[in-house]
Amino acid sequence: MFKIRSLVTALALAGSVSVASAWDALPTQADAPADNPTTAAKVELGQMLYHDPRLSSTGTVSCASCHNTMLGGEDNRPNSMGVNGQTGGRSAPTVWNSAFNKVQFWDGRAASLEEQAAGPVTNPIEMGMKSWDDVVARLQSIEGYQKAFEEAFGKGTISKENATKAIAAYERTLITPNSPYDKYVGGDKSALSAQQVRGMEKVAELGCTSCHSGPAFNGPGTFQKFPVIPNGYWEAQHHFGKDKGLAEVSKKQADEHLWKVPTLRNVALTAPYFHNGSVKTLDQAVTLMAKLQLGKDLSKDEVADIVAFLNSLTGEFPKQKMPVLPGTPGSTFN
Amino acid sequence: MFKIRSLVTALALAGSVSVASAWDALPTQADAPADNPTTAAKVELGQMLYHDPRLSSTGTVSCASCHNTMLGGEDNRPNSMGVNGQTGGRSAPTVWNSAFNKVQFWDGRAASLEEQAAGPVTNPIEMGMKSWDDVVARLQSIEGYQKAFEEAFGKGTISKENATKAIAAYERTLITPNSPYDKYVGGDKSALSAQQVRGMEKVAELGCTSCHSGPAFNGPGTFQKFPVIPNGYWEAQHHFGKDKGLAEVSKKQADEHLWKVPTLRNVALTAPYFHNGSVKTLDQAVTLMAKLQLGKDLSKDEVADIVAFLNSLTGEFPKQKMPVLPGTPGSTFN
């Protein structure tokens, strides 16, 4: 794994901030767990499975439907639409750079990409399969998948475990390096505009980076309460209190309104914002985050500077080939 | 346009059929209309538009959702699922080789790919946009599309006409040559098995090729009545009478139950079958076509031979890159 760490200096160079912050470029590769080393055959199979709507009950919803690899890694909807037009209460997180998340899902309930990949397939309002046994039976009925699993894992290896491993292996390749920000911290001082540099300074000065730091702007911690500062008006406006985050899973009062700190990479491409997708623009998202997490009212210019900086986090998307999915024998969907 | 025509000979060689039939390999390129010459920039833009779910009201349905270019050019469903989980009464025809259709849609109501491309976008149960003005406004709000249209058509050219031209230009590249059948008629006599050759002979002998001939097996005519031979039992079983085909558009009695003769290319990948997707397997489709169009009861072996031959019509899918769709500013979808 390549990791470029630039202990900048950027702010010090800019001259207006007294503390030096660590600004990290995005690695171009992601570490894989010991039991799922990344191989070309797994990535190829994973790309097929990820884009295959036949992993849903209706044959209409693939992982890519909500986490679109042709777009910013999600669907630009407040809430995604699963099988039969159903919608849930949360906004799809981007798949780009999800390899760098410490936990997965908005509430962080999955510890790995492998674990995450198993979830939506059998969620009744997402992909709607009755069970993974049904998914495995469907994959087994498709000759081309028998071959693709054989190449990735060996003969007769179609299983939930291997399907989710392949999807995770593919997702680990979905990295968007070389953003203007990455070039800037790599030494190309012309990569950011003066406004973007002002926004970068402001992000550190305000304290945004106390939660959104590191190469993916999603650390150093894992979870954070939202909102930190109670605000009846905005909470009512956006129904922020309705969904209790991690507590919905853990059932612990201490976990109420705890959320995974999301990456800011490619954030300009992933409107609308927040866990319930209720915030339509990046301007509004920045304004609300400052108010509800840091207790600060930003000026219009400050918001514009920060948004300009956030736009510099849009990276280069890897060139991908379109997968060719193996044919379906007979009719499976109603 | 390259066109390989092989006046075969194949049947004569096989020795058991007295009339020589014309068996044509699939061209590798399709002619474009004079007012829409195919260019690389148009094809690139067309591929983006074709795969962009933001051309639908909900942001969830693209052309590719129902006419999937990763699969057999359709969705393997009896009826496709449009926005908000809605379904219609017809089965999505394959987009592969649709450039060689004389007319488009099951009822042939569109004379060209350009005309066809305009339809589903504003169909309330397909992509659900209120109007093309709304589509154009949405595309204009996306900076990357301004640039892509400029490259394909010139500055400030986002319009319904150009969007549908680009989509059609892309579709003209979706050709699947070099099937085993194509290799066989090109002279490679080992490309088909003995059973496939028997099936090929049977197809000519029965008269299937009186409607399904030519390189795409969809001519020489354009429309055909279905069923030709009334059969109360099977018509009731599959509700064939419910949809009146061309007459639904023309309102003429003479057009009742007239349908575009569909291509047989890649037919093994496009279950379920017939205009309403009510026939689940290719075996059953062959059996019913012989009975209802030709008045013949086929033996199990004859069906198996014909199905083996139809499997030889699965071609090579062109290598495609995954399009990178330009980002959405703010939130558009509810």
From TrEMBL, chains A, B:
Heme c 2 binds at C208, C211, H212, M289. Binds 2 heme groups. Heme c 1 binds at C63, C66, H67. Gene3D superfamilies: Cytochrome c-like domain. It comes from the Bacteria. Residues 41-314 form the Cytochrome c domain. Keywords: Electron transport, Heme, Iron, Metal-binding, Oxidoreductase, Periplasm, Peroxidase, Signal, Transport. Its cofactor is heme. GO terms for molecular function: cytochrome-c peroxidase activity; electron transfer activity; heme binding; metal ion binding. It is found in: Periplasm. Binds 2 heme groups per subunit. This is Methylamine utilization protein MauG. It comes from Methylobacter tundripaludum.
